[in-house]
Specification:
heterodimer, A: 6-stranded parallel beta sheet, 6-stranded parallel beta sheet, 20 strands, about 15% strand, B: alpha+beta, 4 strands
C-alpha cells in the first residue's frame, strides 16, 4: 500500500465511514485512492472551511471522530477557522492536508504554506510527516490523541511524495486500556454535606466525556439546583425541575442570582469562561468550589479552587451518586428558594396574541421548541438568534444543541448541520441562523442539494448584524457602525436557485404553519423569517461587568440613527 | 532589567524535556508567549531523541498555569520550574 492507501486503511480499522473534504493538487494521491474505496463516504463541501465545520458538527452530534481533508496552501488555510473552532470547544477531529513534495518544502513552491507553523496554536497536536514509514503509526497515534482525555483537533500535514510512497504495513500491538482511578472524594463530600446553598455548575465537558447518563444520575441523587454554560445546555434534560438554565452574559436572572447567593459551587466540566462568569471578582463571591475536570490545566486557571478532582467524569460522578443515594443532601430551603427564582427569574417571552403582529425572535424559538421532536438537532450560528435558542429552546440532550461556544464563529451553523445530518441520517436537523451568519457559508446550499439532505434552514432576518448593533446601542452611545445588511439578497429566491424550496413569513399567525410546513416537507427546505431590526437579547451583562449587573430593556433613544461610515 | 524595580515581572527558570520532532521548539515558545511570559534566555541541547531546554522566563501570571499548559503538550515529557536564587535574594532583601 502507498501512503494514501494507508490512510484509508486506518479509516476502515477505526470504523470511520464519513469524511468531509475538498480535493486539490498535493492531496490528489489520497483522492485517487478514494476512487477505489467504497467503504468511506467522502462528502464534497464547497469550501474547505465548511469541510472542517461539517466534521465538527458530525463529531458533536455523534460523539465520534470528525475527519476533514484538504490540499496544501489555500486548502489548508481555509480549514483554519473550522479547526480553531474545534480546538476552542474541544471537539475530536482529525485534519489531513496534502503538502508540497518533501524536496520542495521551503522553496516557496506553488501552493506551499507552512501549515505546521501557522496552526500550532489551534491544534491539540500536529505532525509534518517526513518519513513514509512513520505514516501508519502517526495515523494511529493521531486518532487516539484526538479522542483521549480532553479531546481536540489533531492535524497531519503530508507531503505529496509520502502519499505516493509504498510502505509495508507495520505489526500492530494492542495497547493496554488505561484505567482511570477515581480520586478520593472524602473532602469534597464533606464540603458538599456542609454547604447550605450548594449549586451545580456544568458545562460542555459532560458530553465530551460521554458522561451524560452519569451526570443525570448525579443530578437526580443530589437534587442540586443547577446552572449550565452555553455548551452545557441539555445536560440536565428538559424536565429537571432544579435546572435554572444558562448563566452568564445572557443567562437567566434565576441562574445568575443563584450563583451570586450560593455558598458552594460544584463545577463539572466547565472552564469558568468569561462569558459565563462575567467579572471574576464578582462571581460567586461567597462560594467555596469543588472543580471536576478531565484537564488539569483548567483547574485553578482562573479561580483557585478548594477541592480539585481531576479524572474521568463518569467515575467521579458515579462515586458521588452512590454516596448521595445512601444519604441525600438536606437543602430543602435552598431548593425552594431556587424554585422561586426559577419561577420569577427564568427566561421570559410573552407569546404575542395579536395575529398580525411582527414576529419576535424569542416567540418564534419558543414555538419551534414546542413543535419539533425531542430528538431534533439544532445547529446555530452566532449572534442574537444563537442566544435566543440558548434561552428559549428546551433541549433534552447536549448533543442536540450545536453551537460555536469558544470561538463564536459566524458561518458555523449550516456546515455543522450538514455534518449532524450525516451523523443522524433520519433525525430532524435544523439550522437556525441569522442573515449575517447565513451568508458566511451560503455556498453549502449546493452541498445540501447534492446529497439531498432533508435539512431545515431557518433564517431569522433582521437585516443587520443584530448582536453588534445591540452592543453599539447599549455600550457605544447608539453609534451604529457597519452593521446594516438591508441590501441582503432575496433569500427565498436564493434557495430556489439551489433547487431548495423556501417560504417567507413575517406575522405571528404564520409561525406555526411555517414551522410545520418545513418539518413536514420530505427534503431540504428554507424558512425565511422577517423579524424586527430593533429587537435585543435580554437580559444582558455588559462585557467585563459582574453578572450581578444584569440589564433589562432600557429606554430606547428616539433620535434618528445614522450609519457611521469611516 | 532594573533589579531595584519592585514592579518588574517575576522571573523563573523552567527546564523542559521534550521529544525532538518538527516544530517542537516553536510549539514550546508559542505556549510560553500566549500564556503571558517573555523568554529572557533560552538554551537547547539535543540529547538522544529528546531536547533538554532551559528557559529563563519573566511574567506576572502564575507560573503554575504555564507549567500545566506545557505539560499538556503531547511531546513534552517533563517540566520543572524554580525561581532563580538571585531573584529570591532580591525579594528577601
Amino acid at each position: 500500500m502507498n501512503g494514501a492507501q494507508h490512510i484509508l486503511d486506518a479509516f476502515h480499522r477505526h470504523h470511520i465511514g464519513t469524511v468531509f473534504g475538498y480535493p486539490g493538487g498535493c492531496i490528489m494521491p489520497l483522492y485517487d485512492a478514494l476512487v477505489d474505496d467504497v467503504g468511506v463516504e467522502h462528502v464534497l463541501c464547497r469550501h474547505e472551511q465548511a469541510c472542517a465545520l461539517a466534521a465538527d458538527g458530525y463529531a458533536r452530534a455523534s460523539g465520534k471522530l470528525g475527519v476533514c481533508i484538504a490540499t496544501s496552501g489555500p486548502g489548508a488555510t481555509n480549514l483554519i477557522t473550522g479547526v480553531a473552532n474545534a480546538h476552542r470547544d474541544s471537539i475530536p477531529m482529525l485534519v489531513i492536508t496534502g503538502q508540497v513534495a518533501s524536496g520542495m518544502i521551503g522553496t516557496d513552491a506553488f501552493q506551499e504554506t507552512d501549515v505546521l507553523g501557522m496552526t500550532l496554536g489551534i491544534v491539540k497536536h500536529s505532525y509534518l510527516v517526513d518519513d513514509a514509514v512513520q505514516l501508519p503509526e502517526i495515523m494511529e497515534e493521531a486518532m487516539a490523541l484526538a479522542q483521549s482525555g480532553r479531546p481536540g483537533p489533531v492535524w497531519i500535514d503530508i507531503p505529496k511524495d509520502i502519499l505516493l510512497t509504498e510502505v509495508e504495513s507495520p505489526t500492530r500491538t494492542q495497547s493496554p486500556a488505561h484505567q482511570s482511578q477515581t480520586p478520593d472524594l472524602s473532602e469534597a463530600l464533606a464540603m458538599l454535606r456542609d454547604a447550605k446553598r450548594p449549586l451545580l455548575y456544568s458545562g460542555g465537558g459532560v458530553s465530551l466525556a460521554n458522561a451524560e447518563d452519569s451526570f443525570r444520575a448525579f443530578a437526580s441523587a443530589s437534587a442540586l439546583p443547577g446552572v449550565v454554560t452555553l455548551k452545557g445546555i441539555g445536560n440536565a434534560g428538559k424536565h429537571n425541575p432544579n435546572d435554572l438554565g444558562m448563566l452568564g452574559m445572557h443567562g437567566s436572572r434565576a441562574a445568575n442570582r443563584a450563583v451570586d447567593e450560593c455558598d458552594l459551587l460544584f463545577i463539572v466540566g466547565a472552564r469558568l469562561d468569561d462569558r459565563a462568569t462575567g467579572k471574576l471578582d464578582g462571581f460567586a463571591p461567597n462560594a467555596r468550589t469543588i472543580h471536576i475536570d478531565a484537564d488539569a490545566s483548567e483547574i485553578n486557571k482562573l479561580r483557585a479552587t478548594d477541592v480539585a478532582l481531576r479524572g474521568d467524569l463518569n467515575g467521579i460522578l458515579g462515586a458521588f451518586t452512590r454516596e448521595l443515594d445512601a444519604q441525600p443532601l438536606a437543602i430543602d430551603d435552598w431548593r425552594a428558594q431556587c424554585q422561586t427564582w426559577r419561577t420569577t427569574g427564568g427566561f421570559q417571552a410573552a407569546d404575542n396574541e395579536e395575529p398580525l403582529a411582527p414576529i419576535t425572535g424569542p416567540a418564534f424559538i419558543r414555538q419551534l421548541s414546542r413543535i419539533t421532536p425531542d430528538n431534533a438537532v439544532i445547529a446555530c450560528d452566532v449572534g442574537q438568534h444563537q442566544m435566543w435558542v440558548a434561552q428559549h429552546y428546551h433541549f433534552d440532550h447536549p448533543r442536540h444543541h450545536l453551537t460555536s461556544g469558544g470561538l463564536g464563529a459566524m458561518g458555523y451553523g449550516l456546515p455543522a448541520a450538514i455534518g449532524a445530518q450525516f451523523a443522524n441520517r433520519k433525525s430532524t436537523v435544523i439550522n437556525v441562523t441569522g442573515d449575517g451568519s447565513f451568508m458566511m457559508n451560503a455556498q453549502e446550499l449546493a452541498t445540501i442539494r447534492r446529497y439531498n439532505l432533508p435539512l431545515k434552514l431557518i433564517i431569522l432576518d433582521n437585516q443587520c448584524l443584530g448582536m453588534v448593533r445591540q452592543q453599539q446601542e447599549l455600550f457605544y452611545n447608539n453609534r451604529e457602525s457597519h452593521i446594516n445588511l438591508d441590501d441582503n439578497p432575496d433569500f427565498v429566491a436564493m434557495a430556489r436557485a439551489f433547487d431548495i424550496p423556501s417560504l417567507h413569513i413575517e406575522r405571528t399567525d404564520q409561525i406555526r404553519r411555517g414551522i410545520e410546513t418545513i418539518l413536514a416537507y420530505d427534503g431540504p427546505m428554507l424558512l425565511h423569517v422577517a423579524i424586527s431590526r430593533e429587537e435585543n437579547v435580554w437580559p444582558i451583562v455588559k462585557p467585563g461587568a459582574s453578572n450581578k449587573e444584569m440589564i433589562d430593556e432600557p429606554k430606547r433613544t428616539t433620535t434618528a440613527k445614522k450609519e457611521q461610515v469611516a | 532589567m532594573n533589579p531595584t524595580n519592585e514592579n518588574a515581572a517575576p522571573s523563573y527558570t523552567l527546564n523542559c524535556r521534550m521529544a525532538q520532532e518538527a516544530a517542537a521548539i516553536e510549539r514550546l515558545c508559542q505556549v510560553v508567549r500566549i500564556r503571558g511570559f517573555r523568554i529572557a534566555s533560552m538554551a537547547v541541547e539535543a540529547a538522544g531523541d529528546h531536547f533538554e531546554i532551559a528557559l529563563t522566563l519573566e511574567g506576572s501570571r502564575p507560573v503554575a498555569m504555564l507549567q500545566s499548559q506545557l505539560e499538556k503538550l503531547h511531546t513534552v515529557a517533563e517540566v520543572a520550574v524554580k525561581q532563580p536564587a538571585a531573584k529570591l535574594a532580591r525579594h528577601s532583601a
